[in-house]
Specification:
The chain is an all-alpha fold and about 675 residues long. It contains 40 helices and no strands. Helix 16 packs parallel to helix 19 and helix 27 crosses helix 29. InterPro entries: Annexin (IPR001464), Annexin_repeat (IPR018502), Annexin_repeat_CS (IPR018252), Annexin_sf (IPR037104), ANX6 (IPR002393).
């Protein structure tokens, strides 16, 4: 396998124009704006084909030749987002950054996201130039203005970053790496409470090379990534700032790829963020950002801009973007390195799964049974009492309540609940009262009954359950519906998709130990063998490729697949997710893609499923109920964190805005809190 070369050279999409003549450019712009109306195409084509240094020469030539201020004329002739974009392109980078910071801290409220983005991503020279430009443009001290507008540890870290004194030596002291990793661990995971000052000192001052090694060492000590520790130990704007710093230490292009995606996804566009990033990175690393965007979102930045914007504004942004990217082309070195590292992190990190529902203290099944009976007796139903009991007991405790209800009162609790409740609240409460195996069996049945099949539900359940859970579900399905789940799948699906589901429903995936020694010779041989099979599959005809993928993805253990997918990047310079997206289609593609996503980060996969259940018009209540019920005692806290990270809004907020009444109240209890 070839080693991936480090992508240290930043590469912009905008470079200096050859045969540059500032006087000729000034005249072209003057002619484009004189008379009635203006030639916007001429303006945007010229400005986006010059680098910033050349634009400054054009500004000077315009004033010399015509006695007018070019920026004032542009502001007069242009309007809206297009004007903001063109005028911002004409500012020198330091003055552009200074204005963004000024706008973020002056007026009503503070734009913390802008402060975080700019200060976490700029190097020492850029920081110093921005501070000087701020002083010259606004006559005040940037540090003093930031201190006046922020507070707490968030303020302290911003002040540290504003000094622009991060170490820049490429020489790394191995002893200091180990010491810093140990100090970060002692400041967070190893104690009650968090020593924020240690995080600020180390993350705010050490060199990029040093910190990358510290993060690797930290994972060996803590068995969680530094990002996961920050998410669990810190909160609010300080948490978001520290995560941004870590992301920029790992990869500035990936940080900006994520920011660009969030600026355009969903309803509406965060145009200020989009403009700021497209301008500030166009001469530095836009080509790497494009690659990272494609790696992360399986869609080119070019096409996302094209779909999300319009008119001259769109055309200007596309010029800055610099071109479209073939979906499954080979990586540039920077993106290949990141893809490899992402799989390495997934393989190394032992995620501590955290539920949101735990067993209730001082549990009394008889008292709960009596309280539930009282809530349903007579006219009307006390839904609040039912919700408070059912949603705040573990599943094992709910099974005790079911049994006690029957033995004490001679009644079937499930029948009583069904007769007293209705619609989504009834479905949710009944789902909580079933055992996990009964609930999964019922969800599989619902996905296949009636007209049409919910293939996404079948995939989600079979991909994410352990062998033991699948076998328990098989038994529950047979008991409830008097036929095997495999028979039901075969009668309701067809082709290779059916074969994939049948393979998964066997519950026979290899299950290597969770802490498998990576240096174990047999495991390495096995990984290499699978890697060769996977590479051969990618070169096969479409049908053969899909069958070979099935034999690997449906049978190998998750730890094994993580290692295989990591080495696949090194071996082929491509990512397995992109191969699946490019070469496959329909339900087969969706099934394989779900397996890869679950192998990489299962809570992130569920966060995406929840987002899709609630975004846009209407709600997929069946998916929402299925995930909230099935994950509440496993990893719903982790899912919440991934949801917030991916969508810049909490799961709690989405549920609050997308549901109502007692149904919403129950879901919010299961959610377990705001983030």
């Amino acid at each position: 396998c070839n080693k991936i070369r480090a992508g240290n050279v930043f590469r912009g999409s905008i470079t200096a124009a050859p045969d540059f003549d500032p006087s000729a450019d000034a005249e072209t712009l003057y002619n484009a704006m004189k008379g009635i109306g203006s030639d916007k195409e001429a303006i945007l084509d010229l400005i986006t084909s010059r680098n910033n240094a050349q634009r400054q020469e054009v500004i000077a030539a315009y004033k010399n030749n015509f006695g007018k201020d070019l920026i004032d004329d542009l502001k007069y002739e242009l309007t809206g987002k297009f004007e903001r974009l063109i005028v911002s392109l004409m500012r020198a980078p330091a003055y552009h950054d200074a204005k963004e910071i000024r706008d973020a801290i002056k007026g009503v409220g503070t734009n913390e996201k802008c402060l975080i983005e700019v200060l976490a991503s700029r190097n020492n020279t850029q920081i110093h130039e921005m501070v000087a430009a701020y002083k010259e443009a606004y006559g005040s001290d940037l540090e003093e203005d930031v201190i006046a507008d922020t507070s707490g540890h968030f303020k302290k870290m911003l002040v540290v970053l504003l000094q622009g004194t991060r170490e820049e030596s490429g020489v790394v002291d191995a002893d200091l790496v180990g010491n810093d990793a140990q100090e970060l661990f002692a400041a967070g995971e190893a104690q009650w409470g968090t020593d924020e000052a240690k995080f600020i000192t180390i993350l705010g001052n050490r060199s990029v090379t040093h910190l990358r090694m510290v993060f690797d060492e930290y994972e060996k000590i803590a068995e969680v990534s530094i990002e996961d520790s920050i998410k669990s130990e810190l909160s609010g704007d300080f948490e978001r700032l520290m995560l941004a710093v870590v992301q920029c230490i790992r990869s500035v292009p990936m940080f900006f790829a994520k920011r660009l995606y969030k600026s355009m996804k969903g309803l509406g566009t965060a145009d200020n963020t989009l403009i700021r990033i497209m301008i500030s990175r166009s001469e530095i690393d836009m080509l790497d950002i494009r690659e990272c965007f494609r790696l992360k979102y399986e869609k080119s930045l070019y096409n996302m801009i094209k779909d999300d914007t319009s008119g001259d504004y769109k055309r200007t942004l596309l010029n800055l973007c610099g071109g479209d990217d073939d979906l499954a082309g080979e990586f540039f070195p920077e993106a290949a390195q990141i893809a490899y590292k992402m799989w390495e992190l997934s393989a190394m990190t032992k995620v501590q799964l955290r539920p949101t529902v735990r067993p209730a203290a001082n549990f009394d099944p008889a008292a709960d049974a009596q309280a539930l009976r009282k809530a349903m007796k007579g006219f009307g139903t006390d839904e609040d009492a039912i919700i408070d009991i059912v949603a705040q007991r573990s599943n094992a405790q709910r099974q005790e309540i079911r049994q006690t209800f029957k033995s004490l009162l001679g009644r079937d609790l499930m029948k009583d609940l069904k007769s007293e409740l209705s619609k989504n609240l009834e479905r949710l409460i009944i789902g909580l009262m079933l055992t996990p195996a009964e609930f999964d069996a019922k969800m599989m049945r619902k996905a296949m009954e009636g007209a049409g099949t919910d293939e996404h539900a079948l995939i989600e359940i079979l991909v994410t359950r352990s062998n033991a859970e699948i076998q328990a579900m098989n038994a529950a399905y047979q008991a409830a519906y008097k036929k095997t789940l495999e028979e039901a799948i075969q009668s309701d699906t067809s082709g290779l998709f059916c074969r994939i589901l049948v393979s998964l429903v066997q519950g026979a995936r290899e299950e290597g130990p969770a802490d498998q020694e990576r240096a174990d010779v047999d495991a390495q041989v096995s990984h290499c063998k699978t890697l060769q099979e996977l590479a051969a599959a990618c070169n096969a005809e479409s049908d053969d490729m899909e069958v070979k993928f099935m034999s690997i993805l449906c049978t190998r253990s998750f730890p094994h697949l993580r290692k295989v997918f990591q080495e696949f990047v090194r071996f082929s310079n491509k990512d397995i997710e992109q191969i699946i997206k490019k070469e496959m289609s329909g339900d087969v593609k969706n099934a394989f893609y779900a397996i890869v996503r679950s192998v990489k980060n299962q809570p992130s996969y569920f966060a995406d499923r929840l987002y899709k259940a609630m975004k846009g018009l209407g709600t997929d209540d069946r998916a929402l109920i299925r995930i909230m019920v099935s994950r509440s005692e496993t990893d719903l806290f982790n899912i919440r964190k991934e949801f917030k990270e991916a969508h810049d809004a909490s799961l709690h907020e989405f549920i609050q805005g997308d549901t109502s009444g007692d149904y919403r109240k129950t879901l919010l209890i299961l959610c377990g809190g705001e983030d």
